[in-house]
């Protein structure tokens, strides 16, 4: 079996519009949540979100292209082009484009475009629907557009597993390279659902917080948590076969060593109360990595801030690691700072693990105030900390019972 490493990263996030800005924001405990500006949300009952800020798409494409793409595709292309530049890859020179793929997911796709065009059809008739409506809205088009933009001619797909999408995308890319089907894959996720129907839909499900204070809105593992905060953006990592990366002198950031994927087979939106679904998924990732629970130093939790998720995920971590070991592991939720990027969440959270592995620093769970007896582990409250991190897990749990976990290892030059 071939080994798989990460050699490039790109990101557009509520904390910053590059991978480095995102990581620096995480380390500093920066809050990317603020009042919604994309539209008038006064009638939705939800007032805050984690929006992308000061983003200039013309840094990555011509202005006329932006008119033919939904924001999720634009964010995805920006993140992928950043990752390409970071990796030092030149398709056709130091990598075969036919063995270079793209697996970039979106949980929902072009929701804003769908909303706008349905309204236009209703108000002005079906003949006024935009010619690019379909290619702007379908969820695979971030992957498709990235492939076109960078010239990757290998596998091109989009895993749709709700909030687990990007983690499944990276996991599937890992397996594809490990088993010899590709040499390089751009993997991750992109999402842009901060619009009327996106906020209203999740609010109707009572999944979103109604808190108005940005500092008490996304509060994973806090007893006063009341729902998640919608985020948006994209994250893309370059996965590469180890010997291929070495041969071209690539800067290796971390190694992907394990992947778990399974289903709760329990409920559309609620996880299994005993933690066995997500817990077993973590065990699968550790098993492929060949490590014991005692070797896990950091877990980037799914940590949405919903009443149901955080208690169940705590139970799942104990299921996977054992009660005593679980208490020794540093756990944090990036969503306390970024909100929930849905199908893109797993990508930026894998990047948070890369940062932790490279710098031996665990980012915090910010705005944590009130302890919950059902969430009794070390969630690195409020301030990040220095800690030796050799192995990290990142959890993603999606509506429909989808569980996905990656295990990443520090790259020490071996």
Automatic annotation (TrEMBL):
Gene3D superfamilies: 3.40.47.10. InterPro entries: 3-oxoacyl-ACP_synth-2, Beta-ketoacyl_synthase, Ketoacyl_synth_AS, Ketoacyl_synth_C, Ketoacyl_synth_N, PKS_Beta-ketoAc_synthase_dom, Thiolase-like. The keyword Transmembrane helix does not apply. One of its GO terms (biological process) is fatty acid biosynthetic process. Pathway: Lipid metabolism; fatty acid biosynthesis. The keyword Lipid metabolism applies. Keywords: Acyltransferase, Fatty acid biosynthesis, Fatty acid metabolism, Lipid biosynthesis, Lipid metabolism, Transferase. GO terms for molecular function: 3-oxoacyl-[acyl-carrier-protein] synthase activity. It comes from the Bacteria. Involved in the type II fatty acid elongation cycle. Catalyzes the elongation of a wide range of acyl-ACP by the addition of two carbons from malonyl-ACP to an acyl acceptor. Can efficiently catalyze the conversion of palmitoleoyl-ACP (cis-hexadec-9-enoyl-ACP) to cis-vaccenoyl-ACP (cis-octadec-11-enoyl-ACP), an essential step in the thermal regulation of fatty acid composition. This is 3-oxoacyl-[acyl-carrier-protein] synthase 2. The lineage of its organism: Bacteria, Bacillati, Bacillota, Bacilli, Lactobacillales. The gene is fabF.
């Amino acid at each position: 079996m071939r080994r798989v490493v990460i050699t490039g990263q790109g990101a557009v996030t509520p904390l910053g519009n590059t991978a480095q800005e995102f990581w620096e924001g995480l380390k500093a405990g920066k809050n990317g949540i603020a009042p919604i500006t994309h539209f008038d949300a006064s009638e939705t009952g939800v007032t805050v979100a984690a929006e992308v800020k000061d983003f200039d798409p013309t840094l990555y494409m011509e202005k006329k292209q932006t008119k033919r793409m939904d924001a999720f595709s634009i964010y995805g292309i920006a993140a992928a082009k950043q990752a390409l530049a970071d990796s030092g890859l030149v398709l056709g020179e130091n990598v075969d484009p036919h063995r270079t793929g793209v697996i970039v997911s979106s949980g929902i796709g072009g929701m804003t475009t769908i909303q706008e065009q349905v309204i236009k059809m209703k108000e002005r008739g079906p003949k006024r629907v935009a010619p690019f409506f379909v290619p702007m809205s379908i969820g695979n088009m971030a992957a498709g557009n990235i492939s076109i933009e960078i010239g990757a001619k290998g596998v091109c797909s989009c895993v749709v597993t709700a909030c687990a999408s990007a983690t499944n995308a990276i996991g599937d890319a890992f397996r594809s390279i490990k088993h010899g089907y590709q040499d390089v894959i751009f993997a991750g996720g992109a999402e842009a659902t901060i619009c009327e129907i996106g906020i209203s839909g999740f609010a109707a499900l009572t999944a979103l917080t109604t808190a108005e204070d940005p500092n008490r809105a996304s509060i994973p593992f806090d007893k006063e948590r009341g729902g998640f905060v919608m985020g948006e953006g994209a994250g893309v990592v370059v996965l590469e076969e180890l010997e291929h990366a070495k041969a071209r002198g690539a800067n290796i950031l971390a190694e992907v060593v394990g992947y778990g994927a399974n289903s709760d087979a329990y409920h559309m939106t609620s996880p299994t109360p005993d933690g066995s679904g997500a817990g077993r998924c973590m065990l699968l990732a550790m098993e492929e990595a060949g490590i014991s629970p005692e070797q896990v130093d950091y877990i980037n939790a799914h940590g949405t801030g919903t009443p149901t998720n955080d208690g169940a995920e705590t139970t799942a971590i104990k299921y996977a690691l054992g009660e005593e070991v679980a208490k020794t592991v540093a756990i944090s939720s990036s969503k306390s700072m970024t909100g929930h990027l849905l199908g893109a969440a797993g990508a930026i959270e894998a990047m948070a693990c890369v940062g932790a592995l490279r710098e031996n620093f665990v980012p915090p769970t910010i705005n944590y105030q009130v302890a919950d007896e059902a969430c009794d582990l070390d969630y690195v409250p409020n301030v990040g900390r220095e800690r030796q991190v050799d192995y990290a897990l990142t959890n993603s749990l999606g509506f429909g019972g989808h569980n996905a976990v990656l295990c990443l290892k520090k790259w020490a030059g071996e």
